[in-house]
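Onboarding guide, step 5: your first structure request.
Type a short instruction followed by the sequence, for example:

Predict the 3D structure of this protein.
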Amino acid sequence: MQEYEQSKIIIVEGRTDEEQVRHVMTDDVQIICTHGTFSIERFDHLLEAYQLDDRKVYLLVDNDESGLKLRKQLRQELPHAQDIHVPEEFGEVASTPLDILASVLKHEHIDVNPVFLIKRSR
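The system replies with structure tokens like these:
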């Protein structure tokens, strides 16, 4: 079994979600992309390969029907996972402004590039 130095892991739906999170994050957090699908076989593989039962797991998925369904399925399999939500007005992780995403991640004690925490003028 592979050893992981990172103690935290974020599960996202799509590649663009992963890119958006990586863009603002400075923490040494591993990101798993589900590609929006869930199957017991794939989950069992992820569970073992990434030692999900032994790590701090965050669920960061879109606020749409498919994202909510995926979150529910993952929560059943990973009851210790912590939900991270982007504001409903943005709906999707990939379309959330970088400063908002950074603030949401920082709130969960995930290190982000401070440049994204500067308040934007409204």
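Each response can be followed by summary notes, for example: The chain has a mean pLDDT of 90.
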